[in-house]
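S1.2 Input.
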Amino acid sequence: MTTAQTNPQTNPQTTTSMTATPPHHDDRPAALAIVAHPDDIEFYAAGTLLLLRDAGWAIH
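S1.3 Output.
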């Protein structure tokens, strides 16, 4: 096996790309919720995040 066959940057048959965009990248605005405790999102931010999602935002 040659280096060209094992190197994904030089092998044209490789399906992955070193410059691939993240799988969820798009042109929608995004909201990222960061909280101190695991259940804080449900108590404090869930309603807002659901409204943003329904308005077309990507939520994380």
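S1.4 Remarks. Residues 21-60 form one domain.
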